[in-house]
Structures are given as structure tokens and as C-alpha cells.
Amino acid sequence: MKKIVVLAKQVPDTANVTGDAMKPDGTVNRAALPAIFNPEDLNALEMGLSIGRKLGFEVHVVTMGPPKAVEILKHALYMGADHVRLISDRRFAAADTLATSYVLSEAVKKLGEVQLVLAGRQAIDGDTAQVGPQVAEKIDFNQITYVTQLKEVAADHIVVERDGETRSETIRTGFPVLLTVTAAANTPRFPNAARMLRFFRAGLESDFSKEELETAEPAGWVIPVWTLDSMGLDPARCGLNGSPTKVHKIKSITLKGTDLQLFEGNKAGIQELVQNIVKDYVEVER
Amino acid sequence: MKTAVFVEKNPLTNRLRDVSMELSWKAHSLMEAHQGEVVGLFVGDRLPEDTERLFHYGMDRLVQFTDPKLDHLYSIAFKHVLKAMIESEEPDFVLFGATHTGRDVAPLVASAMKTGLTADCTQLYVDDFKESGKILYQVRPAFGGNILATIVTPDHRPIMSTVREGVMRLPEHVLDRKPNISTFTAEVRQEWIRSEFLATIAKASGVNFQAANTVVSGGAGVGSRDNFKLIFDLAHALGAEVGASRAAVDFGFVDKERQIGQTGSVVRPKLYIACGISGSVQHRAGMEESSKIIAINTDPDAPIFHIAHMGIVGDLKEVIPTMIKYLKEEAQ
Ligand SMILES: Cc1cc2nc3c(=O)[nH]c(=O)nc-3n(C[C@H](O)[C@H](O)[C@H](O)COP(=O)(O)OP(=O)(O)OC[C@H]3O[C@@H](n4cnc5c(N)ncnc54)[C@H](O)[C@@H]3O)c2cc1C
Ligand SMILES: Nc1ncnc2c1ncn2[C@@H]1O[C@H](COP(=O)(O)O)[C@@H](O)[C@H]1O
Could you tell me if B152 and B263 lie in one domain? Predict the structure, then answer.
């Protein structure tokens, strides 16, 4: 069956980084941050579900991450994904975009019959926007980045709008293709109540006892895991080993502090401020 | 030593994008200290009409490939041609603008060459690294701007980075250099053209931060789209451009093209007036190098006051109209 693969990542909620999420040495205490479904990956999934429904393609969601990342896979099931899969191995840790895209591209190849891959434009922890294109390159798909709208879906092509920065571009492409999707593209649907009831017990095999597995397996609650060995990957291309970029050092951002001249919020203070501005910055025509 | 710079043009005007000049100048200052060369790489349908400006900004040589078939961003074709150019030039470092084009093509090239690519660098410098010799140190914000990470690519060449427009500065005086352009030989294969551009619509952008001496920005504290008129009025009275925080954009007070910060524009005006903006790291990333910063905020503890030079603790809805009144008086 023809497939759509959505690449989704669990990320720390960097929008809500507070003081205690930073360790004294300037590194981030990931444990102190809530983990969320990367926002633009929800837009990618929404687009995948709507195209999948129109064309009768199966929608697969794949994430590479620690076991805890099953949380977003469950969310994907609630939203309507047909199949979800965790790609997890200690040897994948500390992967940069080259190593991440190697593993994800191998997953797409292993799934087979993939017509369309959808990624978020970027992940809010790394903000690189590189993983999508680097997957496309490795599987030799066409690519369209910064997709802001899905305009047309047909059996052999789609038409999308792309934010080309100085202009917007309406582009038609056949399959196979990889799109990176922006927040503007759609509004992700809410989890479906019936599917929540059906999948709330979903989890990894290790989450179930032997007896529980007897019901969990046929119910579709066991989320499959692929590992480095089960995928037959080259360890030299995974995780830290496969990452050409290394973090040399990290520092937290401190406010540099200036000599602040405060003016009163009353008329006199505001007038004084204005005089200061005019003196230095405004060429007043007299 | 050699640094290659991806040269990009604005398809609407057929002129160079500022980031190409900024990177050329940056590469020039990096290479000058190491007797290195700066080579531009251009791929497209035709050369930008102001190509010679690259040389004024420190480029030594431009390698160009033009083909009328490449009238749009055909990512796969761009990747193949750029990769061939890089293989023939063998630069140590390759710099791309972190534009929507650069961020589309650079990852493809890095993946094809199996090398490292560091996105959105804010500082670049060359130094020794253990037994790898001289490498490029790449500083970038990470974790939503809450930390600065220095990234190195010790064992792979070329070392690739992207840099956002406006981050690297242009010099006050340009060099007096003659163009030095060579043509690269390649053949665009039909199988590389996999997208069909049905239509392109220019974005109506009246925003020009580059040309503005003063920027007046509004944030969530402005409260509504209606109140945002106050920001436009103040900007008008000062002959300034209007900016915004992401919160103001997300609330729909103003259009996205006005966003300043890590995921918006980087500005460096003589005067920056922040109204109802708390001063998050992400916002500061786009404005803290302004020569003078004025903050208007009801909260005396707002972080913006740490980087402001002048300020008023007060309600912008009262402060701004009074400012406009006095500005008009001063003008009389
Ligand atoms: C990955 C990432 C990228 C981001 N990129 C950007 C970016 O590029 N640019 C950006 O700006 N943000 C960015 N953000 C968001 C950023 O973290 C902040 O959320 C945002 O800057 C806050 O905007 P604000 O200061 O307008 O709002 P708030 O933080 O809500 O501050 C509003 C301020 O207004 C003051 N105020 C309220 N009422 C009044 C009044 N009547 N008069 C005067 N003052 C008043 C308040 O005291 C407060 O200080 C990014 C976040 C992430 C995670
Ligand atoms: N570990 C991962 N697992 C699955 N998808 C990922 C992973 N990392 C990145 N992606 C995808 O690539 C996009 C861009 O990520 P980034 O390059 O980190 O900004 C994300 O929005 C995801 O769609």
C-alpha cells in the first residue's frame, strides 16, 4: 500500500524556558522542561492525514528519540495516524542533522512504497530546518521547503504554495516528494475522542507484562520499535560517531547591562525624553 | 585557505541579496588574516545586474553557472551544480545565507558531501583546533535562544555554515576592485527539474529596516491591533520604521514581516524604541546591537530595561500620545 511518512520529534518546550531550566554551568536541564510535540510537526501530520484520506494512502508517523518520545506517537494515534513507530537506540544519542537524517532516511526506505514524506519546517530546540532536506537528499526525493498551503491533491501530483521569502510560489510536483511544512499551512486537528479511548493504553512492549501483551498485541497497543541492529544501520554513521559537527562549548546568555537613564512617566519626564531623542536622532526641519 | 560564499539574488529585482555582500565581507576579513581567497558561487538563470558589488565587498573571484532553465529554485539541480563547483574549488569553508533559498539548498549539499552544516551562525572565526589545524568556529544561539553554542566540524571538509541576513555587518568603505568572473561548465539534466512553478506572486513588502535610522517596535503590551496605530503614529512622527515582537505578530496586531528577533529580522538602527516589549532573549537577538535603546514598559523589572539606555516606566497608551505631542511641538 502506498504510504505517507510524517517525521515528528519530541522537543523541550523552549518557549517556556525559565531560570531553573538553566544549570549553573550554562547548560540546559532538559528534565526541567516539559516535552512537547514539535509544533510544526503537528502541521505536517495534519497535512499528511488530509492527503492520506483523499488518496487512500496509509499515514505512518516516525520519530527518532528516547522511549519517552512514545508520548507524541500516542498523540499521533489520537489524531488519526494509521501506524506509528519509534526509532530508538542509545547509539543514536547526540546525533546532529547528518546522522539524524541518515537514520530517518533508512527508516523511510525500510517502510517501502513511500510516496510522500512530510516534516516540520524546523524543530524548536535546534531550529536548524536541515533534517527534512537532508532526508530528501538521501532518499533522492524531490523537495519543497517552507510550504504554507496545500492547494490541490491528485493521484499523481500535488500543488502547494511555498514561502519564497520575497514572493510566494505556487508549485506543482509529482511523487515522490518531501515537503517541509510551516505553521501557516493549516490548523492541526484535535485528538479524536474515540481514538483516545481506543489507544490510551498504547505503549512500548516493555510497558506491558506478558499477560497484558496477549490483549495489547491484537488491540494494536504495542508501538513497534526499530533499533540500530534491527534496521541494519552502519554504527559509524549514527549518533555522535556519525555527526561531523561537535559542540565545542556552551554558554548561557546573560544580560550585559547598560547605564539606564530613567525618565518620569509624567509630562515633564516625557518632554525631557523627547528632547533627548530630538537632539540626537531626529532631523527636525525648522 | 579558501572560503566559498553562495551568492544569491532577489528574483524580483534580479539584484544581489544583502546577505551575499555581508558574507563576502565576512569571508574577506576571515581570509585576509590567513592569506586566503574568497570565491563566490552563483547558480541561476542569469547573473544579478549588480554582480560587481560583490568585489567591492571583498570577493576575489566569482564562479558562475547560468542556464535559462534555472529560472526558479529547482533544489535538486542547484544541489548538483553547487556540489560540482565545491568539488572543483575545494574550499575549506562554505557560507550560505540562512534565507529560504540557502536553507533549502545548503542542507542538500552538506548531505551529499557528508559534511557538517551549522545553521544560523551569529559569529564565525578561524583558529587552531587540536591536530585538525585551522578550522572555523561557529557560534550560534540554541535552545530557543537561551544558550550560545560554539560548534566545530573538526574532521570534515568543507566546513559549512549558514548566517542570517543582517547578522554580519557591512563596512563603511568598500574596496575598489575589478570583477573577476569565470564560467563553470555543467549540464542541467531534465531529471533534476522536478518541480513546476505555476505562479509566483511578489509579496507586497513596504518594510525596510536597513534604510531606517530609527525603529519603533511594539509588543504584547500594546494590547490590540487598534492600539498598534499608536506605534505607527510614533514611528511616523520620528520618520522611523515599525517593528514588532513575535508576541505582537502572533496576536495579529501587525504583519509577520515586521517581526524582529531570532526568527525575524535583525536590525541595528541608531535608535530603537521598544514599547510594551519585555525583552526576551529571542527578541534581543534581533535588536540589542542598536546604538541607543529606549524602553517604555509598565513593569520596572522587565528585562528590556537591562539593555536600554533610556526608559520610562509607564503605560504606553499614555506615554506615546504625549511623546507625539511634544515631538510635534519640537518640530515647530
Ligand atoms: C524559538 C523561538 C524563537 C523566537 N523568536 C522570536 C523573535 O524573533 N522575536 C521575538 O520578539 N520573539 C521571539 N520569540 C518569542 C519570545 O520568547 C517572547 O515570547 C516574545 O518576544 C515576547 O514578546 P513581548 O515582549 O511583546 O511580550 P511579553 O513578554 O508578554 O511582554 C509584554 C510586555 O509589555 C509590558 N506591558 C503590558 N502592558 C503595557 C502597557 N500598557 N504599557 C507598556 N508596557 C506594557 C509588560 O510589562 C511586558 O513586559 C521566540 C521564541 C522561541 C521559542
Ligand atoms: N529525531 C527526529 N525524529 C523525527 N523527525 C525529526 C527528528 N529530528 C528532526 N525531525 C524532523 O525534521 C524537522 C526539522 O528539524 P530540525 O532540522 O532539527 O529543525 C522536524 O520538524 C521534524 O519533522
Answer: no
**Which ligand is nearest to the Cα of residue B110, counting in written order?**
2
Distance CA A260, CA A269 (A): 14
pLDDT at residue B327 in the model? 92
pTM of the model: 0.90
- B291 φ/ψ angles, rounded to the nearest 5 degrees: -65, -40
Q: Which residue type sits at A143? A: Q
Domain CATH for B235: 3.40.50.1220
Are B184 and B228 contained in the same domain? no
Alpha-carbon distance of A256 to A259, in angstroms, equals 10
Residue ranges of the domains in chain A? 3-242
A-chain residue closest to B99, CA distance: A165
- Find the domain containing B250 and state its range: 214-331
pLDDT single digits (tens) B204-235: 777 889 888 999 999 999 999 999 999 999 99
B296 within ligand 1 shell (Cβ under 6 A): yes
The confidence score (pLDDT) of residue B70 equals 97
Task: Indicate which atom in ligand 2 lies nearest the CA of residue A132.
Answer: 12
**CA nearest to B60, candidates B88, B87, B89:** B89
The total of structural domains in chain B comes to 2
Hey, are the CB atoms on A166 and B202 less than 8 Å from each other? yes
CATH code for A3-242? 3.40.50.620
